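Aim 2, interim progress. The first record below pairs a target sequence with its structure tokens.
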Amino acid sequence: MAKKKKELPSLSPTLPIDLSPVPEPALLTALGGLPLVAQTFRTLKLHESVERHVEVKQRARGFSESEVVESLMLLHGAGGDCVDDLRRLKADEGLEPMLGHAIPSPEMVRSFLERFHSDVVIEVAKAARKPHQLAFIPEETAPLEGLARVNDDLLREMGRRMPSERIGTVDQDATIQESRKKEALPHYARCVEQKADWMMARILMGKLLVQLGRRAEARPMLNEALRAVILEGATLASQGPHLAGLAAWGGVSFMLALRWFRWS
């Protein structure tokens, strides 16, 4: 028996949409979730805490310390990784009315952050090193100590709001930000990560293969290829050497995995 076809309703040849060439007076934003970050910042009384403990401004006019710190929190919440990304927040016309204050410029925030730094404290820490030591940990400057007290206030407020919570987790994770500045120094994980990554290889394949692997590590080749294509608009063909290196690395790794590892 043939299946009866479903009758479709008649449709108008034109959609019920009116296009107006006159823009609407309302403001639109693609960052509608950020005001909730600001609301949390203020509800936890961090606005007051920053004004009480952090003092780096030399003049009363302009943005207050709390407005700058709040803007940095918003930048972090929006996924920014440098102060230049504040320009994207400033360009959003619908964000400022919801916050109640403007977003500071990257230049202003950079100047603000530089006041947390002290060359004198750095030199004192360097001078206090023992002859065989390379690393050093400088003392906190007064503005940094103020931020630490803000963090204390945050923990106390959270404890007041959740008195039944008696256990806290201290997360000391760190995010490594790549820098191309001439004065930038190698980060601590440059050696530590390689030791962890290569420990199994050292046990299985010996020192010679490890040394060869260090000279042809796959991660820098992948990073360079991605950076060139995404940021510099390079073609895939121009990344032939990197792609060939990645293919060779993957092939060798796969063959070694088949040779050395067995499911038991």
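The second target in this work package is listed in the same format:
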Amino acid sequence: MNPEISVLQRERAKYSPKMPKALRKGFKSVTIHKGKPTKAAADVAAIKSMFPHCFGQPIVTFAAGKGAPNKAALNVGVVLSGGQAPGGHNVIAGIYDGLKSLNSRSRLLGYLGGPQGLINDDCIDLTGDVVDAYRNTGGFDIIGSGRTKLETPEQFAQVLETAKRSDLSAIVIIGGDDSNTNACALAEWMAARGETIQVIGVPKTIDGDLRNQLIEMSFGFDTAVKVYSELIGNICRDACSARKYWHFIKLMGRSASHITLEAALQTQPNIALISEEVAEKKMTLGQIVEQIVDIVVARANRGRDFGIALVPENRQQQGLILKHDVERNIALPNLDRLSRNGVAMRDQMRALAQQYVDRLAIRTPDLAQRVMYLSGGNQQRLIVGRELALLPDLVVAENPTRGLDVAATAFVHAELVRLARSEARCAVVVISTDLDEVLSLADRVLVISRGRLIPVDDAARTREGVGTLMLGGADAMA
């Protein structure tokens, strides 16, 4: 243990995660039971055609017993993919503990920087000292993460070469829906070639929406909600102290309001909008506003001109018609130029949709795929592609490349620049938490600080300069 760590870190390192019943007596006492074949929730034929070798594999469960696990030394590779989530380091620690308990000569290799590390064969040996230093800590910094998509046969072939060079028995990919989809594609590619290397996906997302009857909850959600709840609680305390402000707090949530609902249960705000409830009741924007106004007025009549409202971010319900296919979701906003005398021109609709699917590398079996079955990252790509296809006079892009890989990010940036430089001279406003994105794209940068709109001059067009203005530095107050 590093003697320089804080008292809090030292105490946190002592924590021992709760183990499932099947593992409480050690990994050597685990038996494996194979159950019924797995089934797809929908689009069975399409999924079976995409994964013919992996489809219908039996459900495997673990139980305590007198098992005889393989005690041969194993080499296993692990990759962290996508945004970080609390618990990732403990997943790696658990894999390490399991391997070493079965055979002390087993090795766990950590591939650096996400899936790109697998492609480049860039890894480190995760030894006991390395793993112990990261137990019970947040982040993905033990080996870093990345958003490279494993999608092409060329990438799969490079991963196979990497695995064979290190004699890997298994590759564990820890990530969200996109990452696990890529893991499935890699596993299918391996199986089709008779390779015995196992590809294992571990579900991770703080949104709490990557779950089904077999996945009770992905790791990261519980800690994320507790952190959000602590921040909301602090704002609640401030509101009760000042007694003159209403705070509207926007919480993340890709496709559902799990975080908002759980945070509301923990903090008891005055208002909590739940996307699923709004959708089920088919509430209009006017009805939502009226509901909020009624609550604000009711509190004001009681002499309480303050409060807290939680609002979920919901990319899917804001930007997509989930039950429609990819083609229609891209074409619908463009029907005025894709129809003649009120009749949609299907060939042009299909051509436009295919153009943006290809250019944004949206992973879908075909244009008829319903959007609800696309991964979160592919849904975001679809929204970006569709809005750019509108040829607008003004584009307001808020975090336009969040969740996209390097290639798709470069495409979105190029499209925004193209629109701004086109003959139509489309105005583009980029609102981003990524300073590098802002500085590389913008002709003019503005910072909002302490109620003022501050232009950033050439001398301050650096990360440090913009950061100083954002924090209300001396220049901002001049």
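The mean pLDDT is 84. This observation will shape the mutagenesis plan for the next reporting period.
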